[in-house]
Amino acid sequence: MSEFMDVLRRPDFIENFILHIEYLVLATLLGILIAIPVAIAVNRSPTASTIAINIGNIGRAIPSLAVLVLMFPLLGLGFDSALFALTLLAIPPILINAVVGLRQVNPQILDSAKGMGLSGRQVLAGIQVPIAAPIIFAGIRTSAVMVVASATLATFIGGGGLGDYIVEGFQRNSTAIALAGALSVAVLAIITEVGFGFLERTFTPKGLRIAQKRGRATK
Amino acid sequence: MDSGTEEPATAALGFVQVEFAPDSEPQGLIDWEWLADNFTEDVVPAFFQHIFLCFVSLAIALAISVPLGVLAARYRGLYPPLTAITGFFYTIPSFSMFTILLFVVGFSVGATPAIIALVLYSLLVLIRNVVTGLDSVPPETKDAARGMGLTDRQILWRVELPLALPVIVAGMRIAIVTVIGIAVIGAYIGAGGLGDLIFDGITRDFPTMYIVGAILATLLAIGSDLLFVGVERLLSPWARRSRGAT
User: Fold this and answer.
1) Rounded distance, CA A168 to CA B202, Å?
2) Which chain B residue is nearest to residue A144, measuring alpha carbons?
3) Is A181 in contact with A163 (CB distance < 8 Å)?
4) Which of A63, A181, A189 is the closest to B218 by Cβ?
5) CB A145 within 8 A of CB A189
6) Do A57 and B215 touch (CB under 8 A)?
7) With an 8 Å Cβ cutoff, are A69 and B211 in contact?
8) Containing structural domain, residue A75
9) Cβ distance of A65 and B195 shorter than 8 Å
């Protein structure tokens, strides 16, 4: 137990912990910045939406270790290469949920918004995106948790992060070191899941929340 | 790549071509000769071991999830704790899960801890889809079945489960893709499969091995995804037709 605490106190542990969080924040943010505009761009065309969803599904199927390892011959070892791979992994869940979320907005609501004289941009920003927000956030949450998990594998392409300790623990057959890595990643993943769940609820528009509650009550 | 300590080792292993042809990088990445020599001995067994691991895990997970899902659909109180527990497993990063199974639970290296982890990862999706599938069966259909004199057990096996099947298959599709991806990491704890090629390739600094491993794992995942999409489509029109008929 004291050995375990010693690992947590190592200065490089704190560095790697911060590096892991950097991966989480940057890859998720880049994923959002790429996926949401694409989702908005394909929103008007059902064919383009379907293509985006299919590409997203294929992207989601690709094993994360495969994506990371294939970056190695392309971009070499290190942080950039790992971040690029993690961003690629973060895109599909956000893309799928954003496309589906925007598409499932009731067309009658959009029609009435247009009838009230709102411009296309106003309908999108004021009506469509807020209604789709909970679904989009669910996608972001999925991506964020996956990035935390996949960043553990960054160690195999020299990207550092908390996976370093799992590998070190295995190599030196040290339970304390391996668990310092494994448990800290697990805790980070759970915090991410719960934190984004909270954000999801915060970003659900008030009207939708009331509607959801009513839906539950009538069941 | 050019560190002096590695060169003799790689040369001794017979990867001279890769080491001595740094100018022709694109050709150097895949050593076709190695691939031809080791295809039947290394690559094919790894591929089938991967399929074995994943489909065995999916089968075990189904054997657990279908009864639990049926129970949760009947006794609603069970559903929130079930999704909370399986959701917890699902959130734990796989590399952590493998580490915990080995160092805390005390499994020895091999396929068993990997299969256990893969089963744990499949439960959430499968149970959720079994419950959603059973919920989607219209109550009128069940009433009609009861009116025809079917017992509860007959209704479950002949009416509810067949109608819920497309949704259950949709869950199997997500589960198999997840499991194929995670099984790659399972090679790190000695489960074998395509991850073996990847990890061996990394340790030997031999791109051919990890590129082949990564590409085959990707193709297997996409192929399984498409396979289950096909199964889902085959099942759906039939389900829709019978639902429309009631």
Assistant:
1) 16
2) B91
3) yes
4) A63
5) yes
6) no
7) yes
8) 2-211
9) yes
pLDDT of residue A219: 37
| Domain assignment of residue A216, yes or no | no
Question: A10 CA to chain B: closest CA distance, Å?
Answer: 20
Residues 6+ apart with CB under 8 A from A13: A7, A165, A180
Q: Give percent of chain A with pLDDT exceeding 70.
A: 96
Closest by Cα among B64, B77, B38 to B124: B64
Least confident of A93-102, B180-189, B234-243: B234-243
| Pick from B102, B180, B199: CB nearest A63 | B180
> Do B96 and A64 count as a contact with CB atoms less than 8 A apart?
no
- Closest residue in B to A66 (Cα–Cα): B214
Residues of B in contact with A185 (CB under 8 A): 93, 95-96
**A44 vs B18, residue with greater confidence:** A44
- Residue B244 has a pLDDT of 44
CATH code of A41's domain: 1.10.3720.10
Mean pLDDT confidence for A74-92: 93
Q: Domain for residue A218, yes or no?
A: no
Q: Does the residue A219 lie in any domain?
A: no
Structurally, how many domains does chain A consist of? 1
Q: Considering only CB atoms, which chain B residues are within 8 Å of A169?
A: 99, 103
- Give, in order, the Cα–Cα distances in Å from B176 to each of A78, B35, B52, B221: 31, 27, 12, 8
* Closest CA in chain B for residue A150: B93
pLDDT of residue A184: 95
Q: What percent of chain A has pLDDT over 90?
A: 61
Closest Cα in chain A to B199 = A156
Q: Which of B91, B198, B215 sits opposite A190 (nearest CB)?
A: B91
List, for residues A195-208, the tens digit of each pLDDT value: 998 888 887 877 77
Q: Does B101 touch chain A (CB under 8 A)?
A: no
Average pLDDT for B166-181 = 93
* pLDDT for the residue numbered B34: 82
Tell if the CB–CB gap between A64 and B181 is shorter than 8 Å: yes
What is the homologous superfamily of the domain B47-245 according to CATH?
Answer: MetI-like (1.10.3720.10)
Does the model's pTM come out above 0.80? yes
Beta-carbon separation of B210 and A72 below 8 A: yes
B190: left (phi over 0), alpha (psi -120 to 50) or beta: left
Q: Which helix (H) or strand (E) holds B35?
A: helix B32-38
Angstrom CA distances, A67 to A161, B190, B203, stand at 17, 21, 18
- Give the mean pLDDT of chain A: 90
The verdict on residue A98 lying in a domain is: yes
Structural element, H or E, at residue B88: helix B79-91
Mean pLDDT value across residues B86-106: 93
H/E stretch holding B189 reads none
Q: How is residue B226 written in tokens?
A: 């498409």
